[in-house]
Design goal:
The structure holds 2 protein chains of 2 kinds. Chain A is mostly helical. Chain A has 2 domains: 98 residues, no CATH class; 203 residues, MetI-like (MetI-like fold). Chain A contains 13 helices and 2 strands, in the order H-H-H-E-E-H-H-H-H-H-H-H-H-H-H. Chain A has a two-stranded antiparallel sheet. In chain A, strand 1 and strand 2 form a beta hairpin. In chain A, helix 7 packs across helix 11. Chain A starts with a helix and ends in an 8-residue tail after the last helix. The model of chain A has no long low-confidence stretch (mean pLDDT 79). Chain B has a single domain, classed as MetI-like (MetI-like fold). The longest helix of chain B is centred in the middle third of the chain and has 37 residues. Classes of the chains: A mainly alpha, B mainly alpha. At the A-B interface, helix 1, helix 6, helix 7, helix 11 and helix 12 of A face helix 6, helix 11, helix 12 and helix 13 of B.
Chain lengths: 327, 311
């Protein structure tokens, strides 16, 4: 198990390196630059600005400079000591550099401000998806081909086929405009979390319900379930203690792709509901060519998704003892 | 009962004279699945209306340039109402449908080609090459690829502006970008099938006869993988259309004056409080299309008896 985790960590390093390098050179291969759109600027000012951010340097040098910034300071021991003491926080930190479009702020500051908002939205969405999806999936699996099966299955099919950007505006129309229960957009009070999180989580609730139903049907047909029933275990105990653990497996392996989907879905949801998260910032910064902000965000999302995938794989091994031999 | 048996034997002899019981059985099973048939019929009708409809309508998707009578509610003259510039929404929805379906088909073809070739080569060759190719698939799988597509589209937009490339260029990049990120599942499925087929006698016979690898892969193995490929192609189309609409919703996909369902939904969502029909018509049609494609895909999967295999 330890070897498995370590090897996955080691595999992630080249992946991330390739990703950062590709993003870095892709951004710079395209004509125009971060300051090209500001027409009022004189050529000298433009040159000075580019000089200031080292954008006139040869590309390899810019690249090395950037990489030196983002390598965790742990690899550069001289900076690990602050006032003679080990600075643990700096050891794990990365310096993404200054933002080109928000001149007074660093990318690290922007991410520190925006990421918690996106994370909160994502966590709520994931919780809603799990709660709705698991419940309706288990209910549907218990009485197949009855109303208790058809209704959740039909709703989840609707969830899969109605994209986020249709559900979101519809929810706003009904609950904000006509009923007036929630704010149509904004991110101020706890109640403002409801509509965005529901919009983002609904699609995944639908998939999770389908997967849970399928997984539970398969497990409930197996011999050990019949044994448990024969031993007189109550239906609740059979479902929750014996079947659920195995029935959850497909759901757990789906959570990795689901998180990647929630990250990209958050771009749309943050746009619809005017949520000040990292997704909206990323799209703006890509359009503005804020090189450090784009590269930093891409790297951050990648690290987030890769770590979450690793976590999911560990949980899958824990849930399925048969997989332990393989690792 | 006898009647059914008769028709069965009658139909079991297709014109080619060759027994094709697999496809025949699949067709019979598919016809019995009402949801799949309804989905297929809806799609056929939709494609027909989208392709032919705009020619017979008195309105142009670009409007008449007069900006008269904007934001009108649905009426006999404008079935879906008019948009903010006074353009007929019905024609625009059909036109957007052409683009959305077209992007769905073309991008799916791109992903189909890459996925099938990639999976077939990896599965047939095996060994180190297979390990390397599947490793690449796994790595791309674990990445936030939508972010990369967004980046790619923003940047190609800049290239297009710099060199005055038209809307065609944007569309081509859109096909390529969407196709390039949606072939992974197809590659995995084809690889699994090819690996199973590779050990069968008819392939060994072909190898013994000294046929080239390309010939064996394309003439002997791939025709046997057709079933799963058809099923997953049908299921790729809705996800690809969803991705296109997602990008157009963010303002990155199809650019005006052209339109797609994604950009129509975006425009509708902006104005839905005053003019809800601008959102409801394109949104409903888009959802219905996704419904139909998914039902047809599920029906085909059951009919062709393809098991969802991961590798």
């Amino acid at each position: 198990m330890v070897r498995f985790i370590v090897s996955r960590f080691l595999q992630a390093i080249p992946t991330l390196l390739v990703l950062v390098t590709a993003t870095f050179f892709m951004l710079r291969a395209v004509p125009g630059g971060p300051f090209a759109a500001e027409k009022s600027m004189s050529p000298e000012a433009l040159k000075n600005l580019n000089d200031y951010y080292h954008l006139n340097d040869p590309l390899p040098r810019q690249y090395l400079g950037y990489m030196a910034g983002i390598l965790p300071k742990a690899f550069r021991p001289t900076q690990l000591f602050v006032d003679g003491q080990i600075d643990l926080k700096a050891g794990f930190g990365m310096d993404f550099g200054p933002s080109l479009k928000h001149p007074t702020r660093t990318v690290n500051e922007i991410i520190a401000q925006r990421l918690p908002v996106s994370l909160e939205l994502g966590v709520w969405a994931l919780l809603i998806a799990l709660a709705l999806g698991l419940t309706s999936g288990v209910v549907a699996s218990l009485r197949p081909n009855s109303w208790g099966d058809y209704v959740p299955s039909a709703i989840s099919m609707a969830g899969i086929c109605m994209p986020t950007f249709v559900i979101g505006p519809l929810l706003v129309l009904v609950f904000a405009v006509y009923l007036g229960w929630f704010r149509a957009s904004g991110w101020y009070e706890p109640a403002d979390r409801v509509l965005p999180a529901l919009t983002l989580g609904f699609v995944y609730a639908a998939y999770i319900a389908r997967l849970t139903r399928g997984g539970m049907r398969e497990i409930l047909a197996q011999d050990f379930i019949r044994t448990a029933r024969a031993k007189g275990a109550s239906e609740w105990r059979v479902v929750l203690r014996h079947a659920l653990r195995g029935g959850l497996l497909p759901v757990v392996s789906y959570l990795g792709p689901a998180l990647a989907g929630i990250v990209s879905g958050s771009f749309v949801v943050e746009t619809i509901f005017q949520v000040p998260g990292l997704g909206r910032e990323f799209i703006n910064s890509a359009a503005n060519r804020d090189y450090p902000l784009v590269t930093g965000t891409v790297l951050l999302f990648a690290v987030l998704i890769i770590s979450f995938n690793l976590l999911v794989d560990i949980v899958a091994v824990w849930l399925n003892p048969r997989m332990r031999q393989a690792h | 009962m006898t009647h059914a048996a008769c028709t069965k034997t009658d139909e079991a002899a297709p014109e080619t004279g060759r027994p094709s019981s697999l496809w025949h059985d699949a067709w019979r099973r598919l016809r019995r699945n009402r949801l799949a048939v309804a989905g297929g019929a809806f799609l056929l009708a939709l494609v027909l209306v989208c392709v032919v409809g705009p020619w017979f309508s008195g309105h142009s998707y670009q409007g008449d340039g007069s900006f008269e009578r904007p934001n009108e509610a649905p009426s006999l003259q404008h079935w879906f109402g008019t948009d903010i510039q006074g353009r007929d929404l019905f024609v625009r929805t059909l036109y957007g449908g052409r683009i959305s379906l077209g992007v769905g088909l073309c991008a799916t073809l791109v992903s189909l080609t890459i996925g099938v070739v990639w999976g077939a080569v990896a599965g047939f060759q095996g060994g180190k090459l297979d390990a390397l190719m599947m490793r690449i698939v796994e790595i791309i799988y674990s990445l936030p690829f939508v972010i990369f597509v967004i980046l790619l589209l923003v940047l190609t937009d800049a290239v297009a502006k710099e060199y005055n490339l038209g809307a065609t260029w944007n569309m081509l990049v859109l096909f390529a970008a969407i196709g390039a990120v949606s072939w992974l599942t197809m590659a995995r499925i084809v690889r699994g099938q090819v690996m199973a087929l590779r050990r069968q006698e008819f392939v060994e016979a072909a190898i013994t006869l000294g046929f080239s690898r390309a010939r064996i892969i394309f003439r002997h193995i791939l025709p046997n993988v057709l079933g799963p490929v058809i099923v997953y192609t049908t299921l790729t189309i809705p996800s690809v259309m969803l991705l296109e609409a997602f990008l157009s919703f963010l303002g990155l996909g199809i650019q005006p004056p052209m339109t797609s369902w994604g950009s129509l939904i975006k425009d509708g969502a902006d104005k839905m409080e005053e003019y809800p029909w601008l959102l409801l018509f394109p949104g409903t049609l888009f959802s219905l299309t996704l419904f139909s494609l998914n039902f047809l895909g599920d029906g085909l999967r059951d009919a062709l008896d393809v098991r969802a295999s991961k590798d």
